Amino acid sequence: MFAGMNSVDLAGMLVSFILTVFVLLYVFDDNPLFRMAIYIFIGVAAGYASAVALKDVILPRLFGLETQQQLLVVLWVVLLLMKLFPKTAKIGNPAAGLLVGVGAAVAVGGAVQGTLLPQITASSDFFAPGDMNLAMQAGQYGSVLEYFMRGLVVLVGTVATLAHFHFGAKPAPNQIPNRKPFIEVLSKIGQVFIAVTFGVIFAGIYSAALSALIERLLFLITVIQRMIPGL
Amino acid sequence: MNRFKFNLRSPVATVVTIAAGGIMLLTYLMDLQNLQTVILDVVMIGAATALVIGVVNLFSVHVNKIRTGDSGAVGSAALVVALVVTFLVTMAEEITTFYPDSLPGADWILNTIQVPVESALMGVMAITLVYAAARLVTLRPNIFSVLFVLTLLLTMIISTQMGLDSGMGQGLRNFLVHGLASGGARGILIGVALGTIATGLRVLMGFDRPYDG
Amino acid sequence: MGFDPNDDPENDLPEWLRGVQPEDENGGFEPDDSISSDSEEGLPNWMQKDEQGSFQGPETEDEEDTPEWLANIRNEENSRKDQEPPDFSEQDDDDNLAWLESLSEQSEPDEEPEREEEPGDFLEKVQELKARDQAEGSWGDEEEGQPDGELAEEEDDEITAAWKRESGTLSLSEEDDEDELPDWVTGLTSLDPAELPARRDTASGDPQQEDEEIPEWLTDIRQKTSEDTKQPEEVLPAFGIEPDELYEAGSEDDEPVQFEVDEEPLEDEQVDAFSEETEITGSLPSWLENLQTNALVESTEDAEEERLNTAAYVEDEDVSALFEGDDLPDWLDEVEEEEPEEEEIEEELPEQVPALDEEIPKGELPGWLQEIRPVEAVTSTVDEAEGEGEEEREQETVGPLSGLRDVLPAEPHIIHFGSKPKLSTGFELTGAQKQYAELLKSQVKRESASIPAERRSVANPQLVFRWIIAILLLTITFSVLWWDRNILPLPGQDAIPAETFAAHELVNQVQPGERVLVGFEYQPGLAAELEAASASLLDDLLGSGAELVLVSTQPVGPGLAESFLGSQLSGWPYISERRYANLGYVSGGAAGLLNFALDPRKAKPDMSWSLSPLDTINNMMDFAMVLVITDDPDVARSWVEQVQPLMDVGGSDQAVPLVMVVSAQAEPLVYPYYYTTPRQVSGLVSGVSGGAFYESYHGESLARRYWDAYNIGLVLAVFVIAGGSIINLTRTSLNRTGKGRS
């Protein structure tokens, strides 16, 4: 039935099969088997992550450092551990502050040099001037129109979406602050773009989930076919 | 004026945050790679430690649940056992030399429990997404919901083999995914970048202190 | 509790009763503002200042605001003052001031001059008493040489002396000498509740004085009272109210007379005993008897209302029934007979007490007086009657004698006006205010309370709809996978998207032996999609002879990479022999990624950097290509923001290409990085469809196995979503139409 499989693999296959069925039963309703599978999954994920962090980062980095750096790092780690306990949590604030400060600086620097400047620079290339010029010279006016329209759509979409996230409003006495009419119109256009973008993202999420479902069903079929070879 | 009022509750932590963040920002402008790597070395260890701390906290919470005989004590017990066993197996397999290959290792646990459960959860989500999308227009009958569902349907259609191979599907894909959606996504990305910069600067200037507590 | 000083009976008096009161009754006395005011604030100021009995001096006030009972007190004191020997009234101001200061230690100093300026005030009387005590010498010598004409005062001093002796037996003998006594103790002694009213009784018992001020009918009453009633000083006088004012107050039934009831409820027999006494009213004039009868009838009829009015003060309605009796002597006799204190005093003062008893006029209280007689007098009497034979007596609760039994109260009852003030630390709220407060409290509580998420009861059709979707999707997909016939072909090469084609081209540009960094940045849940999308690309990469260096910022990434390579690409000896390098987990997210990109060797010090394929790696420029397989757009953004700039150091010509294999859900947010000039992401493969495109170029792999079921699942979802939306919309609109018609 399970020819060529050692006991560990066989056990692994059966456990996976059972857990998969438990979870898929949630489609019909919540049940204790599903919850038990989730508890086990969380425990495994947490244990695995902590072990990997310990064996891949903490221990190698700690032993790979010089003594002074080791002391510094140990002190910092001890301070971080203080955050575990409410009474000593404040002592760990500087260590957490270092983590947060470096993270914030890295995020700011990355956003500026990796997203903001390149994407704004790319805005000037929305109309693909080089490609448009080549198409004009070749007399392909349809391609020119396509480049132009596509660039226009992307530009309007970018500006309108940003306008939708613009919450500045001029306060007026005894009135609810309203955005300027121009911004309001742009915001509505931006909403259209956002709805389309989220629709595409939703389709992508479904595609990903469908792939996962297919993989699980394939696994179940494999196990069933092994259990019942004649099928 | 209150906007610029500093709260000196955690002065040391604030100073550390501002100093470390300032140095890191300077490294984008100046060649301070040695200093940068020293700080980042410490941060890497700290981040891993923070992860372990989180797991320890999870462990203690569920151990307390078991002690108190809470309603989910059985599930907590399963979680704790799974956590401990996984941790011990992974560490023993990696660090020690006596762990036999014939026994299930960390990869076995990962592929037998974590991957199947998480994949099955995603599979369940596929069904839930279809159900939610079918109900969306009824629950929120407005133009944006209709637009959302229409885009969803069109995107799924052009993602099929027929949609990908047909010229109309390709044109629709260029217009919908690489045109409209790309414009919206670019706006979202720039907005996210601006938000990240604003939030990061507030932290670096000491107005926000998420580490305080 | 107790007598309500805010009630001003004069304002409610009928005109004829005001005429009964002599015009000069209030003359010479200043009204006590501290008593008559603050009706809305609950407790008067002096009560709020000090619970222990330090009282403030009276303040100037309009005569109209003076409570009548207080005016009577002052009037009587004034009249008695005229009768007192001059040596007692010659108290110098310095002594008064010192005494007052010692008495009211916690009083505000700016009020003291006012006391001095009002010689007619009852406080001065207290001072006089103290001065007299001082003039008489130490308390231990009180029995010696008392003038005959001052029997009332002597009686007070005798009681005080008795109290003193009792205190001495209770180990307080060190205070026997007055010189050793603190001022406040002497002041309290002078303010003994048995003392002041007794003097007033003496004054009011003077027929000449009475005749001048009181109408004849009242004089008759008092004469009868003095003849027939043996009145213990500590009962009636403790309240310090003249019969005149009592009469006036008693005639006002709508004025709730509030008494404190601290004791146990009375037995019915005792109440009946008092009720029987009410019939003895023959000494009253007929009109007054009628009035009294009416009052009694009214009080009987309005018993419920009266109980409500006095609910805050009277805790037991049985006690309120006591005040329906109109004959005092019996219960007064009862007190006299049953109070062991008196007996002890008599034992210790065998010579004087009989004489005092003879001197104290016996009185009979009319019904209107009994209605407002002091509660504590009644209740203490009743309690003593109840506790007859018991050894326990009233326990002192305040002052230096606190905790002792069988002692006279250290705190004068006149200060309490029949009750011990209960100081409220909070606001005095009316019923409506309390109701509003409770309402507000409940609303706030409801707002702050977290509402438990109700388990949404799915309507039956919707539940069935969900089950139909699940069964359809599961069965059809399962059938297609089971069938496994490759129904649909992979997409044609002509239709391949530019970004996918760019990725293919970049992979094919990798030369044998070149290092390729592969980031496995996905979670187990999306492993299926990303493995299907990247399997052919990785196979292509391995075919081009690239040497792989694996890394991940996800803890599960290295494990998933090993699993993926071992299961899908194990056909390659490079994989099965594990010649690739798995750097493992890099912690810290974007910061960790930057750290790794800046100096890979320092970031992973435990790796064998001297061995292939790591031996040639010092920075990111040493890789021929960087491939990132991720399901998270944020992770993709981190790679673009932190790593890609370090791959483009020498200009775009020498830039290391960054290729991404992303989940379909991340594609819209990653594509803008591809659609830039220069490209931040050089090639992009997204989802199963991207993998299928790649496989159409390179060869079938995992995406092919998924392709049929994937397409069927998409089509099925399109039909279900479209059909479900139409059906739901139709049903909703039909329901609305039906509702509109109805």
Write the layout of secondary structure elements.
The complex is a heterotrimer of chains A (231), B (213) and C (742).
Chain A: H1 7-24, H2 32-63, H3 67-81, H4 93-123, H5 129-138, H6 141-164, H7 181-227
Helix pairs in contact in A: 1-2, 1-7, 3-4, 5-6, 6-7
Chain B: H1 11-26, H2 33-68, H3 73-95, H4 106-139, H5 143-158, H6 161-165, H7 167-204
Helix pairs in contact in B: 2-3, 5-7
Chain C: H1 9-12, H2 15-20, H3 33-36, H4 45-49, H5 68-83, H6 86-89, H7 93-103, H8 112-117, H9 122-135, H10 151-172, H11 183-190, H12 196-204, H13 207-213, H14 216-228, H15 243-251, H16 268-277, H17 286-301, H18 303-309, H19 317-322, H20 329-338, H21 340-348, H22 353-359, H23 367-371, H24 375-386, H25 413-416, H26 431-448, H27 460-483, H28 498-509, E1 515-521, H29 527-543, E2 547-552, H30 557-568, H31 573-576, E3 581-585, H32 589-598, H33 600-603, E4 625-630, H34 633-643, E5 658-662, H35 667-674, E6 683-686, H36 687-698, H37 702-741
Parallel strand pairs in C: 1-2, 1-4, 2-3, 4-5, 5-6
In words, what does this structure look like?
The complex is a heterotrimer of chains A (231), B (213) and C (742). Chain A is mostly helical. Chain A contains 7 helices and no strands. The longest helix of chain A has 47 residues. Chain A is extended. The mean pLDDT of chain A is 87. With 213 residues, chain B is mostly helical. In chain B, 79% of the residues lie in helices and 0% in strands. In chain B, α2 packs across α3 and α5 packs across α7. The N terminus of chain B is likely disordered. Chain C has 742 residues and is mainly alpha-helical. Chain C is built from 37 helices and 6 strands. Chain C is extended and about 125 Å long. Chain C starts with 8 loop residues before the first helix and ends with a helix. The chains are: A mainly alpha (231), B mainly alpha (213), C mainly alpha (742). The interface between A and C is large, with 48 and 62 residues.
